[in-house]
């Protein structure tokens, strides 16, 4: 079993649900309180032991690359004024630990992952979707890596139970045997029609995959929505490689949705020592 060292961050999407805010700002740079979504995802990957971050970008996404670079003017000015630079520590990448590859056109999650094939090489890799904002201790990917090592490798995807009337919005697991939080995956269905889902275990935006999935994605076969779906590629590997779902012990906020994004900001603000009391008092005043 090879150790997990690399993670792919598909960040090339257009973010149309947040227009006009995302006309010039990548949706992954939208802040939850005072850190952008992509920073939370990278921090989660670091906690899980990831050494190389692979960003699959698109046009207008240079702010992400700038965010993880050294801002000499900002740091020099802050230092000259005696201000601490500690708040910028997490934004610095060690030389060579970040790689950027461009997805020229939005053709689906599977296509975005496939764009990273040459950097991934023959190693297992993680995929993190930044707008699936996962809050837990330990983090979601760390929980998955622990399960991956305990199982002895293979493919591990994040799963969460969703209401039956929302299964049509997700990739859904056909479950096999279950051992605690780990469920054997016998099948995957992308966005099943209402009433046809094989379970209420939905696939959430965290994956640990073996490199052979790139061979499947190279066929460029379109699925739901006319896009190249990662779920479809994973489904073809079931039975050929071990496949499990890890039910995440924590809270997921859908920050690709406006309501979910506001909820994430409110929930994390309430937990902060510096602003929690003020935010709580304001929320109570709104409720009368």
Walk me through what this model shows.
This protein has 288 residues and is an alpha/beta fold. The protein is built from ten helices and 13 strands. It has helices at residues 37-47, 62-67, 72-80, 109-114, 117-120, 140-151, 213-217, 230-237, 258-271, 276-287, and strands at 6-10, 31-32, 35-36, 52-57, 98-102, 125-128, 132-135, 155-161, 171-179, 182-190, 201-209, 243-247, 251-254. β2 (31-32) and β3 (35-36) form a beta hairpin. The model has no long low-confidence stretch (mean pLDDT 91).
Question: What can be said about this structure in brief?
Answer:
By secondary structure, the chain is of the alpha/beta class. 30% of the residues lie in helices and 25% in strands.
What's the story with the biggest beta sheet?
9 strands, mixed
Helix content: 25-40%
What is the helix tally? 10
Q: Give the rounded overall mean pLDDT.
A: 91
SS strand fraction: 15-25%
- The counted number of beta strands is 13
For the biggest β-sheet, the strand order reads 5-4-1-6-11-8-12-10-9
Structural class: alpha/beta
Oligomer status: single chain
Radius of gyration from CA coordinates: 19 Å
* SSE pattern, N- to C-terminal: EEEHEHHEHHEEHEEEEHHEEHH
| Low-confidence runs of at least 5 consecutive residues | none
């Amino acid at each position: 079993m090879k150790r997990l060292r690399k993670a792919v961050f598909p960040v090339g999407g257009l973010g149309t649900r947040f227009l006009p805010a995302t006309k010039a700002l990548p949706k992954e740079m939208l802040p939850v309180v005072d850190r952008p979504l992509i920073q939370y995802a990278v921090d989660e990957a670091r906690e899980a032991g990831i050494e190389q971050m692979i960003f699959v970008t698109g046009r207008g996404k240079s702010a992400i690359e700038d965010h993880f670079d050294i801002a000499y003017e900002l740091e020099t000015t802050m230092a000259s004024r005696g201000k601490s630079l500690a708040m910028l520590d997490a934004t610095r990448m060690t030389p060579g630990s970040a790689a950027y590859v461009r997805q020229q056109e939005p053709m689906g999650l599977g296509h975005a992952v496939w764009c990273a094939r040459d950097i991934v090489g023959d190693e297992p890799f993680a995929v993190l979707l930044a707008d699936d904002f996962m809050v837990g201790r330990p983090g979601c990917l760390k929980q998955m890596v622990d399960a991956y090592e305990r199982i002895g490798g293979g493919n591990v995807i994040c799963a969460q139970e969703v209401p039956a009337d929302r299964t049509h919005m997700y990739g859904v697991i056909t479950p096999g045997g279950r051992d605690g939080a780990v469920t054997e995956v016998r099948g995957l269905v992308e966005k099943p029609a209402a009433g046809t889902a094989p379970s209420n275990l939905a696939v959430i935006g965290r994956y640990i995959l073996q490199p052979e999935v790139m061979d499947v994605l190279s066929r460029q076969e379109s699925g739901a929505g006319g896009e190249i779906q990662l779920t479809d590629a994973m489904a073809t590997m079931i039975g050929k490689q071990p496949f499990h779902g890890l039910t995440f012990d924590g809270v997921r906020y859908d920050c690709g949705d406006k309501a979910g994004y506001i909820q994430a900001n409110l929930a994390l603000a309430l937990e902060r020592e510096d602003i929690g009391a003020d935010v709580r008092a304001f929320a109570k005043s709104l409720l009368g």
